[in-house]
Amino acid sequence: MTVRHSTAAPRYDPVRYERGRLTVLDQTRLPRETVYAALTELDQVETAIRTLQVRGAPLIGIAAAYGVCIALAGSPSLAEAQRRAPAVLARLAATRPTAVNLSWALARMERAIAALREPDWREALEAEAAAVHRDGRAQDARMVSHGLALLAPNARVITHCNTGPLATGGLGTALGVLIGAHGKLGGLHVYVDETRPRWQGAHLTTWELAQHGVPHTLICDGAAAALMQRGGIHSVWVGADRIAANGDTANKVGTYGLAVNARHHGLPFYVVAPTSTFDLALDSGAGIPIEERSPREVAAPEGLLLAPPETPAWNPAFDVTPSELISAIVCEQGVFRGPKYDLRKDIAG
Amino acid sequence: MTVRHSTAAPRYDPVRYERGRLTVLDQTRLPRETVYAALTELDQVETAIRTLQVRGAPLIGIAAAYGVCIALAGSPSLAEAQRRAPAVLARLAATRPTAVNLSWALARMERAIAALREPDWREALEAEAAAVHRDGRAQDARMVSHGLALLAPNARVITHCNTGPLATGGLGTALGVLIGAHGKLGGLHVYVDETRPRWQGAHLTTWELAQHGVPHTLICDGAAAALMQRGGIHSVWVGADRIAANGDTANKVGTYGLAVNARHHGLPFYVVAPTSTFDLALDSGAGIPIEERSPREVAAPEGLLLAPPETPAWNPAFDVTPSELISAIVCEQGVFRGPKYDLRKDIAG
Fold first, then answer.
1. pLDDT by residue (tens digit) across B319-331?
2. What is the pTM of this model?
3. Interface contacts A/B by beta carbons within 8 Å
4. Phi/psi of residue B254, nearest 5 degrees
5. What is the C-alpha to C-alpha distance for residues A318 and A291, in angstroms, rounded to an integer?
6. Cα dist. A188→A141, A156, A195, B219 in Å?
7. Is the terminal CB of chain A with fewer CB neighbours within 10 Å at N or C?
8. What percentage of chain B carries pLDDT values higher than 70?
9. A202 in contact with B, Cβ within 8 Å
């Protein structure tokens, strides 16, 4: 593994699609190895999403869109592809329950499939998946631009989980803003929560910050409050997996406790996510399904037996931060400021 | 490793002294192996404390008292032992900076050494160390009894780090109360914070609860807030490494953020510690030295490389919870209720 401390654009691409083949950077092997996996079957795509080889709410949506192409572009006819589509969409939708970008991207593919016409339907299907990816990149660029307005030079910030290019296939969400601030504002220092149980902060965010030459320090999740208490922290930045109409935000477990501590210390708490993460069908976070993953991720992570083998563990992958703890939600349309949100009205068509 | 789910007394003893030999249960190897190490030299005792083979604020004090015996009981004469004593005491005092029980126990040994008389000075020295241990056991029993008054049957509680028999050589502090509640009140369920970076919750507390047959569930530190939000938790219980006169409490990193979240959810937050943990020379927690340990405990724990090798990490071993977040401090003298404490007046002689 080589980590370059440079300001050059990163030389990694979390997903890349060429007809019938989705090449993904295996995020479960970072930072130890930079290994790409080629996925050519639907069940490989499902497994890659389920096992977190591909993760990050926006990136899951993009990978699923390409997964639809892998499953259907080889169909002998358009009619056959359209007949098979519902089952394919349902299988992909079932891979992860919390991130709504997944169902958003699949709904978009579903509409495209219904509109496909002979003879170039395969190209049109793949063009739609590429558009999901391209639109995501463009949204990231706009989010980063909006988010920069919330930062000043020499900011010291805390972030949780991974929300960089690895999570979106573009510039990233919260981490995209921070990487942008490093280049545009200068003097940034990012404190990175390790983000148990899967260590996306330790594994991925430190790796991305090193790739972009952004000064950073890794901390245990439990040390964030002590860091805030010590003083000198300016704001806290996270992404989102699903945001209800009232602004309640599901994100990686640990986010909620971090938001409570940010509030206790009077620190702004910012959520950065594209509108494809908004679930306007939900009035509040109470309706967001929370994925519970294997207890082994807690008790025996990465082969390390932390507790007696029969120890029961509770492993919610996400938690819900009530909107009143969120200072602002940054999306590609702009900055919505709390503590009250009505995202159904806030967002444009 | 065998874990018995029984209600019988545990068959482990974290320290045991016989003339010139301190046998310690190596807590760095739990829960994988139950291995005892025999320490017969001062530098072995220092290393055992520094490397956390022996840990837990009260137990560190007891081990250090026995360490004084190991270092001095072999002296050819009392005069020689008294001449060497200051250097021995200084070496042991330097092993861990935050827990005040260490300096408390060493001060007690220092007074005893000054009072030693020929010819039975070796026996008297060892008797004083044994008295430190015995007094600690008696204090634990009284703390457990006082703490039980704060619990009702069928309590669901959260605890952080390890504060059981392994931490004190007696019944334990906070975990001692909980183990007592399991036997006396019934229906207890303990949620155990894994307690990064050293995993004392995952490694030690789950192991102790299993030994005592207490139902429990391991969680990541970052999941405690989500657990509180879900409802059904009654109180939070922790130990302490040093408590200032105003009640400010240094304890394992993560305690402070947990206390902030307990307050946010209206949950009682209880600290259990013997008066030997009180540092009445300090007006507030601002004067408590916080040990910073190796960044490797964060970035590469137990041989697992979590982040790129050059990743900087911040690793405070403790944090300070302001007294206004503490609902009550339980010691062997009784229960002191907050939010205001004046421990100089509260405690008896």
1. 999 999 999 999 9
2. 0.94
3. 184
4. 105, -25
5. 7
6. 19, 6, 21, 32
7. C
8. 97
9. yes
User: What size, in residues, is chain A?
Assistant: 349
Catalytic site residue from A241, A248, A279, A319 = A241
**Minimum Cα–Cα distance from B302: chain A residue:** A304
**pLDDT tens sequence across B78-117:** 999 999 999 999 999 999 989 899 999 999 999 999 999 9
Sheet (strand B36-39) strand order: B15-18, B21-25, B36-39
Judged by CB atoms within 8 Å, which residues 204-233 of B form the interface with A? 206-207, 210, 216-227, 229
- Regions of chain A where pLDDT drops below 50: 1-8
Contacts of A195 in chain B (CB under 8 A): 222
Per-residue burial over A94-110, b = 16 or more CB atoms within 10 Å of its CB, e = otherwise: ebbbbbbbbbbbbebbb
Give the per-residue SS3 of chain A. CCCCCCCCCCCCCCEEEECCEEEEECCCCCCCCCCEEEECCHHHHHHHHHCCCCCCHHHHHHHHHHHHHHHHCCCCCHHHHHHHHHHHHHHHHCCCCCCHHHHHHHHHHHHHHHCCCCCCHHHHHHHHHHHHHHHHHHHHHHHHHHHHCCCCCCCEEEECCCCCHHHHCCCCCHHHHHHHHHHHCCCCEEEEECCCCCCHHHHHHHHHHHHCCCCEEEECHHHHHHHHHHCCCCEEEECCCEEECCCCEEEECCHHHHHHHHHHCCCCEEEECCHHHEECCCCCHHHCCCCECCCHHHHCHHHCCCCCCCCCECCECEEEECHHHCCEEEECCEEEECCCCCHHHHCCC
Q: Is A241 tagged catalytic?
A: yes
